[in-house]
């Protein structure tokens, strides 16, 4: 899981995921659709799936 450090507004809502600061996101994959490891495939609490920039989030442990 990860927590958003900043707001992010996607430039392409068919691929990217928009989110707000402090949103909790589930990480589904550590790269994007072209194997760029600066992006993560994530799911929002509402169930939307898309890619997010890795430098906008903080990894968290829910243990």
TrEMBL record:
Residues 1-62 form the SH3 domain. InterPro entries: SH3-like_dom_sf, SH3_domain. Coiled coil: none annotated. Pfam families: SH3_1 (PF00018). The keyword NAD does not apply. SUPFAM superfamilies: SH3-domain. Keywords: SH3 domain. It comes from the Eukaryota. This is SH3 domain-containing protein. The lineage of its organism: Eukaryota, Fungi, Dikarya, Ascomycota, Saccharomycotina.
């Amino acid at each position: 899981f990860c927590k958003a450090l900043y707001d992010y507004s996607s430039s392409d809502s068919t691929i990217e995921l928009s989110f707000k600061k402090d949103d909790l996101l589930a990480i589904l994959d550590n790269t994007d659709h072209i194997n760029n490891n600066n992006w993560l495939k994530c799911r929002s609490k509402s169930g939307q799936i898309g890619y997010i920039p890795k430098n906008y989030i903080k990894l968290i442990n829910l243990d």
